[in-house]
Amino acid sequence: MNTSHFVPRRLRGWVLPLLLLALWSWAAGALDSPLLVSPLAVWQRGLVQLAGGELWQALSASLWRDACGFVLGAGAGLAFGALLGASRGFERLVGPSFHTLKQISLFAWIPMLTMWFGLGEAAKIAFVALAAFFPVVLNTCEGLRGVPREWLEVARVHGFGRWQLLRRVIAPAAAPSIFTGLQLALIYTWLATLGAEYLLASGQGIGNTLIDGREQFQIDLVLFGVVVIGLVGFGLNSALAAVERRLLSWRERTVARY
Length: 258
Hints:
Number of strands: 0
CATH architecture: Orthogonal Bundle
Number of domains: 1
Largest sheet: none
Structural class: mainly alpha
Radius of gyration: 23 Å
CATH class: Mainly Alpha
Number of helices: 11
Helix content: over 70%
Distance between the termini: 35 Å
Strand content: under 5%
């Protein structure tokens, strides 16, 4: 029996979170341990953080680092990926080196970044930018390489210039892959922002909220930080998905015609 028919479509995404919330409440009461507090205690801690302004200060600092790193890394990734995808000569020249560098763990770059930029904001933003760079490069290159050759030949037959070819053929065909790279970059940069705040110099940020909770043994503060991190990540991903649907709505109209 398909039980999904008993739940309205709009509410199906809430089933698992509500079940987890119920399980969390039950476990907190059954275990009665200082290592696990109830959702109500986390909610109350959140109200305190919100009323005192600590949440907004931490969240704004983290989002600022995330935005700066994303813009820098994604911008560089788009340019480099376009070169790799458009020029076979450039790909043969630097492609092997790039594909070697992308295998290196992101956290392995931290010692070098700290030597170059220190332990402050510059190192954190550089670390976040690096997280955005590689997925954008790979998906941009793949998107450009995946443009059907037949489309290019038809466009040339119709006398398209370089700008028309780019705007009306190449960019629309490569856009879905590029947006996939941007979506991955947005996820990775948010994770990298938290990692940078946790591993580099202490300062304001939601990652430092987790550190404060751990050092003060306030599990409600730690769990509150985890919930905020998850909600922000979900919000960022949903926002970019909405932008993608709006900008690529022409694809749905084209498919509907056929």
